[in-house]
Write a sequence for this structure.
């Protein structure tokens, strides 16, 4: 799950652009990073453990116009320099960066070891670069070697490749996204549209396509046949020129929730596209798909579709054989629109009606779904998703209930309540202060409130590293109560109306000297629970800060999970 950037410029050095691109892709993984450039008859590589800033500090200088870069989220092998990308082949002919996972790499490695190849890393990627070199030394042709490689590799892979003797960048793609961009300065490849900032035009490289870019042209092949593909204009949103880098993006993004509500109202007040309205109206069966926070938003938001048959499926657990209704509308939720688990489901059901909901206009999800809706939450940088959760739930609410005076008024009312919660954080701060040294917490609820608990609990563990679990309140006594001890924090979430249903669980907690924190909301407004989730986002943020954790980039995580 990594970010890839590759560029060939006509008249300027490539290194600064690679670093800029990698910064934008850091959300895909930040265990290590690296770049490689072509210098006459030589490939020059530099890698670093940790962030791009560190690589920048120690980077060599070069006027080379051809280079590739990578930011890594470790899958195969520890996070060390040997395992960082780019990887170079034994004879130094090829150097490449890879995003994806090779399932048959052990087999390939054994075969190459028998042929005398040596391995210096524990990665699957090093097998690819050596296999490519092996094919090339047999046939003397890079494009045929790429075709061979594509036939041999099993798994997911985007590769950008340098060959020592040419000012070209070769590529090969299977299952994870790769875009080719054209700018007035040259040609670029990237796993992510954000990193193609210079580009004015782009095209998607599809599965099993390979080819190369040079400074002003590109060639694309599939199974040894050249294919012509046209470029599309990139639609760009106007840049916000007043951007100040905040101390914590997570905090900034939580505070942007009222603004997100404004943006949604403004953007959708004249109603959704008629085609989207029709496809929802005619569908009796809705299948929601998402991961992590987006899955939690789907769980809560799908409840608004009261008169439809609804299934909410975790993308990573999707099994087409278990889908009972053949005739369904698939609704995909993904902040980034690049989550591989989600895209893989989309691939399997692309012959059905599909609606993508994402925060990134040019994301793979929105490009590939038949119908597309933008969340309008503006870029979310912190790895922990906050404002996008709210946008996802609101869009599902509006899709289900329609856009009318009443629903828009509910959004405005809830916006006001959220503003109040953001202004008065004293209570949240004092809870954070009192539990900042705890290592465990439970979130308890009954019925549909469990969906809020799931999100609150995920957020807490994600940024504070406090172990937390989300439980149905009635289940506490059936086992989890064993962990209770003095001052164990337990968060209860309930609507005011159902508060007394939690009484016995609260008693069980106090009897064991645990501390119950009871959060209630008013169901008068169908969105009434959103101010509470804002409180829990704030609680996680303050705790992470008090515990001196990396709030915006928690360990082991990435903003967009592009491996399966
Ligand atoms: C949220 O805080 C998490 N970082 C994570 O669960 C995330 O929601 C999940 O990976 C799905 O991402 P997506 O919405 O971009 O598809």
């Amino acid at each position: 799950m990594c970010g890839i950037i590759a560029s060939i410029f006509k008249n300027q050095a490539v290194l600064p652009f690679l670093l800029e691109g990698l910064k934008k892709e850091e959300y895909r993984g930040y265990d290590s990073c690296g770049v490689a450039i072509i210098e006459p008859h030589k490939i020059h590589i530099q890698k670093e453990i940790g962030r791009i800033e560190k690589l920048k500090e120690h980077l060599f200088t070069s006027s080379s116009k051809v280079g590739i870069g990578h930011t890594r989220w470790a899958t195969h092998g520890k996070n060390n320099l040997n395992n960082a990308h780019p990887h170079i082949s034994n004879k130094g002919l090829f150097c490449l960066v890879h995003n994806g996972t090779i399932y048959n790499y052990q087999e390939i490695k054994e075969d190459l070891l028998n042929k005398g190849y040596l391995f210096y890393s524990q990665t699957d990627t090093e097998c690819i670069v050596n296999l490519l070199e092996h094919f090339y030394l047999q046939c003397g042709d890079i494009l045929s070697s790429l075709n061979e490689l594509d036939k041999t590799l099993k798994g997911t892979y985007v590769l950008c490749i340098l060959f020592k003797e040419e000012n070209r960048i070769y590529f090969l793609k299977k299952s994870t996204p790769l875009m080719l961009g054209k700018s007035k300065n040259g040609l670029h490849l990237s796993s992510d549209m954000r990193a193609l900032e210079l580009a004015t035009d782009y095209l998607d490289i599809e599965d099993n396509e390979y080819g190369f870019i040079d400074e002003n042209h590109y060639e694309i092949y599939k199974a040894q046949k050249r294919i012509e593909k046209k470029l599309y204009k990139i639609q760009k949103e106007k840049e916000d020129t007043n951007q100040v880098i905040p101390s914590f993006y997570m905090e900034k993004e939580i505070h942007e929730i009222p603004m997100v509500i404004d943006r949604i109202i403004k953007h959708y007040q004249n109603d959704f596209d008629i085609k989207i309205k029709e496809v929802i109206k005619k569908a009796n069966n809705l299948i929601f798909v998402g991961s992590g926070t987006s899955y939690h938003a789907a769980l809560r938001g799908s409840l608004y579709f009261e008169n439809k048959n609804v299934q909410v499926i975790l993308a990573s657990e999707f099994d087409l054989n278990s889908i009972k209704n053949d005739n369904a509308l698939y609704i995909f939720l993904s902040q980034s629109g690049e989550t591989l688990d989600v895209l893989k489901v989309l691939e399997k059901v692309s012959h059905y009606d599909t609606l993508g909901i994402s925060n990134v206009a040019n994301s793979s999800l929105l490009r590939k779904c038949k119908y597309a809706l933008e969340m309008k939450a503006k870029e979310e940088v912190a790895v922990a998703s906050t404002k996008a959760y709210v946008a996802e739930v609101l869009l599902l609410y509006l899709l289900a209930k329609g856009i009318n005076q009443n629903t828009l008024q509910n959004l405005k009312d809830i916006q006001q309540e959220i503003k109040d919660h953001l202004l008065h954080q004293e209570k949240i701060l004092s809870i954070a202060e009192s539990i900042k040294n705890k290592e465990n917490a439970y979130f308890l609820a009954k019925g549909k409130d469990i969906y809020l608990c799931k999100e609150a609990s995920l957020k807490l563990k994600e940024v504070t590293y406090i172990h937390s679990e989300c439980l149905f309140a009635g289940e506490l006594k059936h086992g989890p109560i064993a962990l209770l001890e003095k001052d164990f924090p337990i968060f209860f979430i309930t609507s005011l109306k159902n508060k007394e249903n939690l009484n016995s669980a609260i008693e069980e907690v106090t009897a064991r000297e645990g501390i119950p924190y009871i959060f209630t909301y008013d169901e008068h407004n169908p969105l009434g629970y959103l101010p509470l989730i804002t409180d829990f986002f704030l609680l996680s943020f303050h705790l992470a800060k008090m515990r001196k954790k990396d709030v915006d980039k928690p360990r082991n995580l990435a903003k967009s999970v592009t491996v399966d």
User: Anything to note?
Assistant: Residues 291-294, 334-336, 339, 342, 383-385, 462, 560-561 surround 2-deoxy-2-amino glucitol-6-phosphate (CB under 6 Å). The mean pLDDT is 93.
